[in-house]
Structure formats: structure tokens, C-alpha cells
Write a structure and sequence with these properties.
Oligomer: heterodimer
Largest sheet of chain A: 5 strands, antiparallel
Radius of gyration of chain A: 18 Å
Shape of chain B: globular
Distance between the termini of chain B: 56 Å
Number of strands of chain B: 28
Order of helices and strands of chain A: EHEHEEEHHHHHEEHEEEEEHH
Shape of chain A: globular
Distance between the termini of chain A: 44 Å
Largest interface: A-B, 17 and 24 residues
Bound molecules: flavin-adenine dinucleotide
Number of helices of chain B: 19
Radius of gyration of chain B: 27 Å
CATH class of the largest domain in chain B: Alpha Beta
Structural class of chain B: alpha+beta
Strand order of the largest sheet of chain B: 3-5-1-12-9-10-11
């Protein structure tokens, strides 16, 4: 990697100030950024670690019953939590123990890898992404592969998840990376069902609205029967064709509904 | 009662204490005083003409000591190939020059263009980025069949075509084979791909060159399975350094699987550069570099026919294979698809005539060479997939069809030039049927069905030729080296032994298994024996470890040297006991006079050899040190039968391995635990090839599977607990230990079992799929089910 300066502020305000500097970049768990640096694909002047900020770490239930997860909370912490089983289950299958002990929810959502897991949970829960300046609804936040509503230097400080009645995430792994080849998050709320799909689309995570409508009417795997996503616009690569991914969206959605608890 | 020491004991691997506690000494752990670091600028273009390499800006960067390009290597040789294959017309193969640094053209993504030597590794890398390259891209050839079409872009302009050789074996049998196929009652044909693999040892390659100005001696520290071979090839053919001025040290080696056999340009570079700048030069491969610079394995495209008579006896086999050589000939590349592959096409079966045709092809890809099994997995895979297909076409039981055609009398001369000394293929199949619980399959099938899963059973046999090799034979076949092995056994005054062996463990456990043999022969504790290997300065000329040869060939050399020691100690004991030498017996570390109670201990005799006060000096020399070179008279032929049960998820195409069983005949077994470990690892790699691993290039020669994000390695949860058995050993008849070799078997025997099982699962479900090419990824299986 190229040489860089390193800062580890203790408050969000100090982190924001540090990120205002020339070529400064936030560092969460480093599980995406450090490999990128090692490949010399990025050259930040300063890395600002968000891991020393107590107000960004940990999980609590907010007054409105939503689960509030600090932006620097690790996957392992979320995996061990009990308030939102669908979310904890998703976190427990990200990477391996080392990745889960380092990687953070903020880093994952900021990066918005088209095959990452958390985007499906955030979109599938209608979460709110809180930053140092504003609150962004998940529906507005994800803007395509590796693209989000975040401005330069903006930090995800917290993610608020309305807790559904039942939910589940089904991940069909890409054999090499074990990221999601297709991952489907299903969440049933009093006012309807949300279905978010990751891994599959060239536009990144998306909501499968047909399935949402069908499941809102009848929350059962059979409700998906006959529905399909268009293979056009799906990712086709050495691990699976567009048609295969489109097919898996249906299979994983059914399985998520069947497993929802 | 299992033994607790000596031959047959599952002694714990003593080397693991240091490996598992971080006390190993790997090449990258070595740092030479004052060393500089090299970073290689590698081509990111698969095929192109180098118009200009401008190093001026890079040379001015901080810490840069010197930047080397092809011009600096003008006076030295290319990286040599160690095996010359003769084609079916009697002509030698096409053998292009393989320069240390690219000369005029780049021919694959990863080829070294320049070496930047600097004070630190980061400075070297920074400067390499500042080198200005002007390379005019040329069309690349990646597909082998396209590469041999008229008008295809040529990888090497000075060669007539991209065909390295067109080999026919046995050419004289071709007519008889064609005739047998034309007259057969049934012919089964299969076209398949043996997928290209990256070996991926846990330890990437490392090389450090050092030069001692005072003596003019060069030293190379390198991650090698065979340091003497590197010394010979690099010293004699590349750099012109006589062997007595060149020392090659390969300390602990963290896995090799074949890919650390070969002499690589990086090794020549650091040795040359160290002398040029008069400082040690170190290179440590990154994992990304390993993908584009370690020789790849396999990569065959084959069409195979099997002819059967009306009674289902095999009457002929004919194959046509395209074998990828990559852009240059790696050290043993030409031998892999020929002598290590064609000679195994008889498998475990008596087929009267066989013809093997292999076209080796240059492409704009990383060089391809031996990888665990080397040629034998390719032979086994074709044959065992084909027999399975034949059984299905004929509606007969695949095990019965195999049994019917087994070789049952030994020695057996195959029609492909090798003679199996011993074996009992029915016995290993009987054992397999038991340990795999084949009679319980139907019940498990029903259980899977109840879960909505498709279950399948795949069985296959394999045979391989190990213990490479009789030197006079391989010399006739084109080897440019002898393939004996050596050992020096040094007994110290107080009775401990040091064995300096030309074999070199890269994880196999030689430090444990070799002492077991000596402990057994002398009757002493294993802890009294120490193994020294991996350093040309203190081991006799040896050919190293590959081809499952270490115990069969290196162990035999050690036995011979130890026999010499025992003969000499008996003479000394006879003198001390005032008895006739013929009456001396050695047992449990005691020399005794037959029929008396007179005895003297091993340690007293060894002390006498070094303190020869009361000693037959007129007859024998003092000291106790003996060397033996062992050249085998034949290959060894491990064989076995494997069974795999899979479940296929019909919704996703995902295959899971539910059971895997292996019944092997390795001859005598010195350490059953180590042997089981070798089989376990081999199966993991074989399952990796069958289900997960595969190199993918795009049509421009860019490597798409260039990291673990896209190249799928097998992990623990991809594999079940295995049932392995090696109780059916038929001892090898021609080496002193009766051993056959076990290192590659698992990787050779397992891929067809997996693929046979998946095809079985699909066909039981009514599918007419007859073959799916490896790796059987979920998407490929799903595509096959839905096409
Ligand atoms: C072996 C391996 C396997 C993996 N498997 C999976 C998997 O199965 N599923 C999956 O979803 N992911 C997987 N990941 C990715 C992992 O989840 C990462 O943790 C995650 O993508 C990034 O989180 P991080 O905290 O490590 O971020 P970093 O790597 O530190 O940063 C990533 C990016 O986000 C920015 N950033 C970091 N934190 C914030 C913040 N709070 N606000 C704004 N920007 C921020 C950084 O500047 C950088 O651009 C895997 C990673 C590895 C190494």
C-alpha cells in the first residue's frame, strides 16, 4: 500500500473535522478498504478510523421500538444481538469470524458492494441511515453498484431498523468469495411485506415489488409461484448467468418466506 | 495391537510442533544482512510487442538501486526445459527460448518485464509504477483448438506454429486401435475438459539471491521441492555458475503440490542481481502474483473412445487430447500430458490395444506444468468417466463392468509401455463396498428424496505410476535428468543418526516417517534419528520430492545406506565380541552372538567407531558414515477404488458431498496416520477440482479468476468426514520397503467419483445429462439440468 497518515478521533465531531482534510478517508473495520489499499487501488492521504468513537458503537432499542445500530458496530456484535433475529442471522453469515469481528455496518453500507448482505437488510427493513448531517431513507440511499447518497466526508453514524413481525435472509453464496451470488431479505410488517434482493442486479440492491405485493396478500412461499424477475439487468459472470441469478431470486425468496420467524 | 514406534506406527509428526507454534523457518523468515528487495513489473497484456521500456524516471525514485531489463540478461541463458518430447514423426518438440525477463514481446499476463531493485519492497514497487512502457497489443490466443488453426496469432514468431508437439502413443498401435473400434459391438465416446487449476500452496513463492564477494560463491534461498534440481538447471543452463560455487537452500516449505518443482525466472533473477549489485536481493510473491506466475496445472481438452465386445470386454481405447503448455515450456511441462498421462491410459483394466494422441499447444497464458498427480489425474478422469458412461449406455452395473475388465494377474504388461508389478483391484473394490456402505445406499437415497434432494453415487478406480523413475528408461523418453535418489547416513559417536536425504518434504512429514524406518532397522528409538534436507551444501545430490517418490525412492536410498552402516557395525561388534561376523545379530539396538548371551549395545559399537582403541583398523576404516544412491528398476503402481455420494439441490444445482470413501493399495505403510492425512488432503484437492476450482481467461488473455474472490478453493465445510482404508497393500516387489507412494492418490482418484455421482443423481431423477465439465459449480449443474 501507499503511505498514509492515520488518525483515530474519539468523537463524531472530531472525525468529521479530520475527514475535511485533503484526501482523507474514513476507515471502519478495514475489511474492504485495507485489501483495496494493499492492491494499491486507492491512495488516501489520511485514514480516519471510526473505531474509537463510543457514540458510534453498539446496539440499542429506540423509543419507537426501532433497533438502532451504531455505524461502527461490528458484524459480530449484530450477530450476537437478539432484538431483530433476521438481521442478526444475516450478520452471522457475513464472511468469517475475523471479518465479522472487524467489519462494520457503516463500512458495509457506505461501500454498497452489489454482492454485500447488509444492503438487503437495510432496504428490506425500510431502515433509516443516519449520518453526521441528516437522515436518509434506505429507499433513497442505495443508488446502484458502489454508489450511495453519501456526500464526500459524510459518516454513517447509526442505522435504524424498524423491527418486523417476522423476517429472514437467504444467501446463496458465490462459491469463491462467499459473498451473495443472490441474497434475499424478506420482512413482514403490519403494513406490508418488503423484499430486497442483493447480489443479483447490475443496479445493486433492489426491491422486488411484485413479490412484495403477492406476499403482502398471502405471506406464503406459494405466493411467489409464477413470479419472476427479468433476467435482463441481472449480473452475468463466471459464477452464474443472468438467467441463473434471476431464477435464484425466486428460489431464495420462497426460502426466506418459509424460514421467516 | 497397533505399533507405537517403527514401521507401521502412527508416530506423531514431529515437525508439526514447530509449524504449529510459529517456529518454522520458511524462506520468507530468512533475511540476509544488507538485503535489497526486488519488485517485478509484470505484463498486464497477454500478447504484445515491446516498443519501449523507459526506466529513467523510475531509476531516479527514492531507494532505487538498479532496474534490470532483458538487456541486462543478454549474456545469460533462458530458463531451460527439463524434458524433451519427440513427436509422432520422430521430430523433437518445438522449444522456444524462455527469457528471464521478456525480450521484445510479452506473451502472457504476468510475464516479467523488468525487475526493480531498491532498499525496501515498497520503494521497489513505487518505482516499478514509474516505469514507462510502450507495448503494442497483439491479438492473443487462449483457446487451444483456435491456437492450432491456420492463421492463428503466433505466440512465438520464430516457431512454425503454436503446436509444441503432436505425440502418438503407441504410434504403431494406431491402426489396430482404429480397427478394433470400427469392429466393436459397442463404442462409447466422451468429450471432456480437465479444468485448469492454480496450485495455491499456503506459502507463496519466495527467492533470495546472495553473493559472497570474498569467495565468489552464490547462494539462493528458495521455496523449492528440489534444491539440487534448481542448482543444476539454474547454474548450468541459465547463469553459468558451476555447482561448487552455487548453493541452493530450501528451508521449510509450506506446501508445493508440484508448483515448487520448477525452476522459475525469479530464482535466476535474484541470484544474478545479487552478484550484479553485490548485495542480497529478496523477492516475496504476493498472492496476486502467485495467480499469474506460479505454473498452473491440468488444462486438457480430450475426446476419448472405448470399444467393447458383445460380452462387454474392453477391446480398445483411443484418445485425442489438446494439452495447454501456456506461453513457455515450464521445467517438466512436456512430460505431463505424455509420459505421465499416456502410460496410465490402461488404468486398472486389461484392454488389448490403446492409442493416445496428444497435441501440446502454446497459448498466451501462464505456463502449465505438473500439479498433484500430473497427467495421471487427467488419464484417470477420462477413463473413469468414460467407463461410467459406457455402463449407463449398456445398462450394466458400473462396478460390475469394472470388475469384469480388471487386470487380475501380475506382473501385467500394459499396451502403453508400463508393467504393473503387483495389485489386487478386486480386494480394494471389496473394501470400498464395505467402507462406503454401498448396500445402505438405497435407504440414504430415500432419505434424500424425502428432503427434496437428488442423491447420486459415483464409484471409480484409479492407478498411478509413482516412484519416478528408472533413469535409463526416462532418459530414453526424453528426461534431461536422472531420477534416482540419495541418502547419507551419519552415525554419531554416541549412537544418534543424521540422515541427509535428497528428498525434500514440503509438508509430507519426512522428518517423522524416515526415522521410523531406521528405528525399525536398528531397533532404536525414533528420537535418535534426525533428518537433514533442503540444502545442497549438506545433502548428497538428490532429485527431490514429487510424483509420490520420496519414500519409494528416497526411502530406499536411506535403507541401502543404513544397510551399509549395519554391515559395518556388525563387523565392529564381531571384533568387540570376539565372534565371527556371520554370527552377529542386531535386534532392539543390541548386537549379540547367535546362540550365546554375549552382546554389546549399539552405542558401544558406534563409540568404538569414533574412538577406535579396540578396533579392527587393519580391516575397516574408523567412522560411521555411508551414502547410497538408489535408482528404481520400475515405477510403483498404487491403485484403489473411490466412492462418492452427493446430494444435488434441484432448485439451485448446488452439490454437496455427503460421503466420500477411499480404499487404496499403497503397498506397505510406514505411518498410517500420515498416509491417511495425505489421502485426506488429496481428496480435498480432487473435490476442489471437481466442484470449485477453475482458471478462467477471457478471450484477450486476461485472467478473470485472479484472486480468491473468484477462484474457489475447497474449505473444511465443503467436505465430509472421509472413510479411508489402506489395508489392502500388495507390497511393491522391487524396492526394499515394498512401498508404493501415497501423496497424489487422493487428487487422482477423487474427481471422477464426484462427477460420476452428480451425473448419477441427475439421471436417477430422469435427466438425460451424460456429462458436465468441471468444476461442477451450482450454475453449471443447474444449466445442465435445465438445458
Ligand atoms: C474475506 C471477506 C469476506 C467477506 N464476506 C462478506 C459477505 O459475505 N457479505 C458481506 O456483506 N460482506 C462481506 N465482506 C465485506 C465486509 O462485510 C466488510 O466489513 C464491509 O464490506 C466493509 O466494512 P468495514 O467496516 O470493514 O469498512 P472499511 O473497509 O473500513 O471501509 C469500506 C468503505 O466504507 C467507508 N466507510 C467505513 N465506515 C464508514 C462509515 N461509518 N461511514 C461512511 N463511510 C464509511 C470507507 O471509507 C471505505 O470507503 C467480506 C470481507 C472479507 C475480507
Amino acid at each position: 500500500m501507499y503511505a498514509f497518515e492515520f488518525e483515530k478521533p474519539a468523537t463524531i465531531a472530531d472525525a468529521v473535522a479530520a475527514l475535511g482534510g485533503e484526501e482523507a478517508q474514513a476507515l471502519g473495520g478495514g475489511q474492504t478498504l485495507i485489501p483495496t489499499l494493499k492492491q494499491r487501488l486507492a491512495q488516501p492521504g489520511t485514514l480516519v478510523s471510526l473505531k474509537g468513537i463510543p457514540e458510534m458503537a453498539g446496539i440499542c432499542v429506540a423509543d419507537d421500538g426501532a433497533l438502532a445500530v451504531g455505524g461502527a458496530t461490528t458484524h459480530a456484535t449484530v450477530a450476537a444481538s437478539t432484538e431483530y433475529p433476521g438481521l442478526a442471522g444475516l450478520a452471522s453469515h457475513i464472511g468469517d469470524p475475523a471479518v465479522r469481528n472487524r467489519g462494520t455496518i457503516g463500512g458495509s453500507l457506505a461501500n454498497n458492494d452489489p454482492a454485500a448482505c447488509y444492503p438487503a437488510a437495510a432496504l428490506g427493513s425500510g431502515a433509516t441511515i443516519k449520518t453526521n448531517t441528516r437522515e436518509i431513507a434506505a429507499d433513497d440511499y442505495f443508488q446502484g453498484m458502489f454508489t450511495t447518497a453519501l456526500e464526500d466526508g459524510e459518516i454513517i453514524t447509526e442505522v435504524r431498523f424498524p423491527v418486523p413481525e417476522v423476517s429472514n435472509y437467504q444467501k446463496f453464496v458465490q462459491p469463491a468469495s462467499r459473498f451473495a451470488l443472490v441474497g434475499v431479505f424478506v420482512a413482514k410488517y403490519a403494513d406490508g411485506v418488503r423484499v430486497a434482493v442483493t447480489g443479483a442486479s447490475e443496479d445493486g440492491v433492489f426491491r422486488w415489488s411484485e413479490a412484495e405485493a403477492a406476499l403482502s396478500a398471502n405471506f406464503a412461499p406459494e405466493a411467489i409461484e409464477g413470479l419472476s424477475v427479468d433476467a435482463d439487468g441481472m449480473i452475468g459472470d463466471i459464477h452464474g448467468s443472468k438467467a441463473y441469478r434471476a431464477h435464484l431470486v425466486g428460489v431464495m425468496t420462497k426460502r426466506a418466506v418459509a424460514a421467516a420467524s | 495391537m497397533p505399533k507405537d514406534s517403527g514401521i507401521g506406527a502412527s508416530s506423531k509428526r514431529r515437525e508439526d510442533v514447530r509449524f504449529l507454534t510459529g517456529a518454522g523457518n520458511y524462506t520468507d523468515d530468512i533475511n540476509v544482512n544488507g538485503q535489497a528487495y526486488v519488485h517485478f513489473l509484470r505484463s498486464d497484456i497477454a500478447h504484445g510487442t515491446i516498443n519501449k521500456i523507459d526506466t529513467s524516471a523510475a531509476a531516479a525514485m527514492p531507494g532505487v538501486i538498479k532496474i534490470f531489463t532483458a538487456e541486462d540478461f543478454a549474456a545469460v541463458g533462458g530458463v531451460p526445459c527439463g524434458w524433451q518430447v519427440t513427436d509422432k514423426h520422430g521430430n523433437p518438440m518445438q522449444e522456444p527460448k524462455h527469457p528471464v525477463l521478456a525480450e521484445g514481446k510479452v506473451r502472457y499476463v504476468g510475464e516479467m518485464i523488468a525487475g526493480v531493485v531498491a532498499e525496501t519492497a515498497e520503494q521497489a514497487r513505487d518505482a516499478a509504477e514509474a516505469i514507462e512502457l510502450d507495448i503494442a497489443e497483439l491479438p492473443a490466443v487462449v483457446d487451444m483448438k483456435a491456437a492450432v488453426q491456420d492463421g492463428a496469432p503466433k505466440v512465438h514468431d520464430d516457431l512454425p506454429s503454436n503446436l509444441c508437439y503432436d505425440w502418438g502413443f503407441v504410434e504403431e498401435n494406431k491402426g489396430a486401435v482404429d480397427e478394433a473400434i470400427a469392429n466393436a459391438a459397442h463404442v462409447t465416446t466422451l468429450e471432456l475438459v480437465n479444468n485448469r487449476l492454480v496450485a495455491n500452496p499456503m506459502e507463496p513463492r519466495v527467492a533470495i539471491g546472495d553473493f559472497a564477494r570474498g569467495t565468489g560463491d552464490s547462494t539462493l534461498y528458495t521455496t523449492s521441492q528440489n534444491p539440487h534440481v534448481i542448482r543444476l538447471l539454474m547454474g548450468a543452463f541459465v547463469l553459468g555458475i558451476p555447482e561448487h560455487k552455487l548453493r541452493v537452500i530450501a528451508p521449510d516449505v509450506g506446501g508445493g503440490f508440484g508448483t515448487k518443482i520448477f525452476h522459475y525466472a525469479e530464482e535466476a533473477f535474484v541470484t544474478f542481481a545479487a552478484k550484479a549489485i553485490n548485495r542480497a536481493v529478496k523477492w516475496t510473491s504476493s498472492r496476486s502474483e502467485a495467480f499469474i506466475s506460479d505454473a498452473h496445472g491440468r488444462d486438457h481438452v480430450t475426446k476419448i473412445d472405448l470399444a467393447l465386445d458383445a460380452d462387454n470386454n474392453f477391446t480398445a481405447i483411443r484418445t485425442e487430447t489438446y494439452a495447454n503448455m501456456g506461453a513457455y515450456l515450464s521445467t517438466f511441462a512436456p512430460s505431463v500430458p505424455t509420459w505421465l498421462h499416456g502410460t496410465l491410459m490402461a488404468g486398472n483394466y486389461k484392454t488389448p490395444v490403446i492409442y493416445v494422441n496428444v497435441k501440446a499447444v502454446f497459448t498466451n497464458t501462464v505456463p502449465v506444468d505438473a500439479y498433484r498427480g500430473a497427467g495421471r489425474p487427467e488419464a484417470t478422469y477420462q477413463l473413469e468417466r468414460l467407463i461410467d458412461k459406457a455402463a449407463r449406455e449398456l445398462g450394466v452395473d458400473p462396478i460390475a463392468l469394472r470388475r469384469q475388465n480388471f487386470v487380475t494377474e501380475f506382473p501385467y504388461e500394459t499396451p502403453v509401455a508400463v508393467a504393473y508389478d503387483t495389485g489386487d483391484y478386486n480386494a480394494t473394490m471389496d473394501t470400498l463396498e464395505q467402507i462406503a456402505d454401498l448396500s445402505g445406499f438405497e435407504a440414504r437415497l430415500a432419505e434424500s428424496k424425502a428432503k427434496g434432494k437428488l442423491r447420486g453415487l459415483g464409484v471409480n478406480c484409479y492407478i498411478e505410476a509413482c516412484g519416478i523413475a528408472p533413469s535409463n528408461l526416462v532418459g530414453q523418453l526424453g528426461a534431461r535428468a536422472g531420477l534416482y535418489e540419495s541418502a547419507t547416513v551419519r552415525v554419531n559417536a554416541t549412537g544418534g543418526l543424521v540422515v541427509m536425504t535428497g528428498s525434500h518434504s514440503h509438508g509430507q512429514g519426512h522428518e517423522t516417517a524416515f526415522p521410523q524406518v531406521i528405528a525399525e532397522m536398528i531397533g532404536i528409538d525414533e528420537s535418535m534419528v534426525e533428518i537433514v534436507h533442503g540444502d545442497t551444501a549438506n545433502t548428497p545430490m538428490g532429485m527431490g520430492t514429487y510424483g509420490s517418490r520420496s519414500l519409494a525412492v528416497g526411502g530406499s536410498a536411506m535403507v541401502r545406506a543404513t544397510e551399509k552402516i549395519i554391515n559395518k557395525t556388525k563387523k565392529i561388534a564381531a571384533h568387540l565380541l570376539e565372534a565371527a561376523e556371520a554370527d552377529i545379530e542386531l535386534k532392539d539396538g543390541q548386537f549379540s552372538v547367535a546362540g550365546t548371551d554375549k552382546s554389546v549395545a549399539w552405542g558401544d559399537v558406534t563409540l568404538a567407531a569414533y574412538v577406535p582403541h579396540n578396533y579392527p583398523l587393519e580391516d575397516i576404516e574408523p567412522g560411521l558414515e555411508e551414502t547410497a544412491f538408489y535408482d528404481p528398476s520400475n515405477f510403483t503402481y498404487p491403485a484403489g477404488a473411490y466412492a462418492c455420494e452427493v446430494e444435488v439441490d434441484p432448485d439451485t444445482g448446488k452439490v454437496t458431498i455427503e460421503r466420500f470413501s477411499a480404499a487404496d493399495d499403497f503397498g506397505n505403510v510406514v505411518n498410517p496416520m500420515i498416509v491417511s492425512g495425505q489421502v485426506h488432503g488429496g481428496i480435498a484437492q480432487g473435490v476442489g477440482q471437481a466442484l470449485l476450482e477453475g482458471v478462467v481467461y477471457d478471450e484477450n488473455g486476461q485472467l478473470l479468476s485472479a484472486s480468491y474472490m473468484d477462484y474457489a478453493m475447497p474449505r473444511a465445510d465443503d467436505l465430509p468426514f472421509y472413510a479411508v482404508d489402506h489395508s489392502n497393500g500388495t507390497p511393491c516387489t522391487h524396492n526394499p520397503l515394498g512401498v508404493k507412494g501415497c501423496g497424489e492418490a487422493g487428487a487422482i482418484g477423487s474427481p471422477p467419483a464426484v462427477v460420476n455421482a452428480v451425473v448419477d443423481a441427475l439421471q436417477r431423477n430422469g435427466s438425460n445429462v451424460t456429462h458436465i465439465d468441471m468444476p461442477l459449480s451450482p450454475s453449471r449443474v443447474w444449466d445442465a439440468m435445465n438445458s
